[in-house]
Amino acid sequence: MKFWKNKPTIGVGVGVSMGVLGAIALAARYALRSSPRRPIPDNISPAVFSTNIAQTAHGEMVYHASGSGSPIVFLHGIYPGASSYEWSKVYPSFTDEYTVIAPDLLGFGESERPKPGLDADQHVQALADGFREIMPGNPATVVASGFGAALAAKLAAQHPELVRSLVLLAPEGFDSKRQRVPRGIRFLAGIPRMNSFFYRHAISRQPFVRDWLLRFGFRNSALIDPDVVDVIATCASQYGAEYAMLSFLKGRARYDVNRQLPRITQPTTLLWPEADRDFPIADADAIVAAVPFCRVLANADISPLGALECHEITEALVRSALGPISLEQGGIAA
């Protein structure tokens, strides 16, 4: 122990090396041939939703829309094979009260996949362009999950005229010291050629996707529907899908979220998976303290990908979040 304390760089090097070996082992485990590139399935969105395209400064953004009333946007997180499909079991029930809009972030789903992937500012610019085209002059309620919540927070802070309120499920990227992606995978993502090989032969394949969902999104492996894995793996294996994911793994989309939080003046609700060890309630309290009008709805039955794993519970929480919020400055805890 005294040796390792005196040689910290050796310890770090060994840790990275072991992480890389583990990541390479995953590639070997999941076979040395690429996933077949099949068309994105029709069930990525419900049949009653139209598929549309919004033009942005960084490419074409595909979105699904239906319903009538004030706009509500459901924004997915960032992970291998991410798309608007994440919220497809939740958002259809809101069409009686809202105009529901479910976009694919640029680089994901059916949207254009620019090379290299976008940074946070570019993602927010693309979202702002899309919002102005889709719902001109009409601010939206934004329901976002994972790192999509970090992008939604930046959008609300920088373009307050576009966002009416925020509902953030298991937000990621708010604590710069907390890294949920294994170090070996992050290291491999930065190695040219090796990263593309690793993505094609491991990350985009169904076994890896299933393991990723269980480790970072679902709490119960029995609830991982094979159809869900199939849709996500199909999206992950599309041509150019690796650009956005590898860029994200290298940290290109990350930014200092805490600098933006005090600028969010819209009512904000955090849907917090309190049973998930990666989401300690202290992190939620820190966000509540920073955002002027914010509350937490903590629940032990939801997960970071609750929209797919337990969509009925997640839908009920979103509805609760859309209810009245007492606007006492300094934060609201519920």
Shape: globular
Distance between the termini: 45 Å
Give the class from helix and strand content and strand pairing: alpha/beta
**What is the level-2 CATH architecture name?**
3-Layer(aba) Sandwich
Number of helices: 13
Largest sheet: 8 strands, mixed
Task: Summarize model confidence as the mean pLDDT.
Answer: 85
Major sheet: order of its strands?
1-2-4-3-5-6-7-8
Low-pLDDT segments, ≥5 res:
1-20, 327-334
The proportion of residues forming helix, as a percent range, comes to 25-40%
Report what the structure shows.
With 334 residues, this protein is an alpha/beta fold. The protein has a single domain, classed as Alpha/Beta hydrolase fold, catalytic domain (Rossmann fold, 3-Layer(aba) Sandwich). Helices cover 40% and strands 16% of the residues. It is built from 13 helices and eight strands. It has helices spanning 2-6, 8-29, 120-134, 146-158, 183-189, 194-203, 206-216, 226-236, 241-249, 257-260, 281-290, 306-309, 311-321; strands spanning 50-56, 59-67, 70-75, 98-103, 140-145, 163-169, 268-273, 294-299. The protein has an eight-stranded mixed sheet with strand order 1-2-4-3-5-6-7-8, with helices on both faces. β7, α11 (281-290) and β8 (294-299) form a beta-alpha-beta unit. α7 crosses α8. It is globular and about 50 Å long. The termini are far apart.
